[in-house]
Amino acid sequence: MEGASAASIEPRPTGAKLGFIGVGNMGRGMALNLSRKGFALLVYDACLARVEETFPPSQVAAGGLRQLAQECDRIIFCLPDYTILQRVLFGSSSASSSSSADEGDRGLVAFLKPGHVLVDCGTSHPVWTQETERRLREMGITFLDAPVSGMVAKAEAGTLSIMVGGDRSAFEVVEPALWAMGKEVTFLGASGNGQLTKMLNNVLFNVSIAAMAEILPVATRLGLDPQQFSEVVGKGSGQSFGFDSFAGLVLARNFEAGKGGYPLAAAFKDMQTFEELVHARLQADHLPSVVAGTMQTYKEAPPPCLCCLPVASCALDKGYGAEHKGAMVKVWEERFGVQVAATADVAAQPPNTSTYA
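That's the 2hydroxy-3-oxopropionate reductase, putative sequence above. Prediction below.
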């Protein structure tokens, strides 16, 4: 709730079982925190072995989606993207109406009843979220969007930031479970607002990383020591969380995605979604003239929040998509004929391995 804290909302479990689908890098830590804090948990993943090696048999949904629907009135999802969630929920279109189809082909919704509450903790498209919420609401099923920010370390520690959109009464039902996984839980109103908030937050973060990826090669090309320059920026007005998080990794030539959050290819989707929503939602013919002029500027010369799209796209084209977002620096390094690297004594120090939004 607005203004609430972990101290004011005790994560008390209810008697009914809580379902959890998706125990990959993020989901594993989130589900483990629910289990440690006393929630009666039933866990499912497409890779059953992944669940069995982490959770006791009593918490493994060996019976699949049907078992989850039958035993759990609240189900949390932590899946890589909304296209996967779409398949888990609704199955394949060809099998959705066939009672003899495989459970995975039919989808979870085939086994749900009115009153179920579903919570999407993954990163999904805001428009898809709203459409899905309406579709499920017509079936008597409540769908909340509750994307998380903080990455793997915070998922394991139970200190994620969670942004929630949807029905308030349903939010209050699942709120204790959310506090078991996070240190900040904010209810943001209508369906899709959680996903929209996370997307916009990520855009700001990505812009700061793109700026870092450009400025370090520029400084190096102009004759500055990139290590010294980074130290000065870290103490000056140009400092940002994105710069602090990724400059050290770049200087150490460490582009492993696990050290810098999501791979560039996965993070790029937020920028694409932002561009799409700007053009689809903020149509010039529906805005006052002064704002319409701004929209024309969007079309002719993208503003700062979209200017990092070309360099990110170029980095993907060059094969850096599996590396973290700091790999955008390589595009500028190649253009300026330099390499950003720390001096030997600094390179030997551990890089910044903080977790990121």
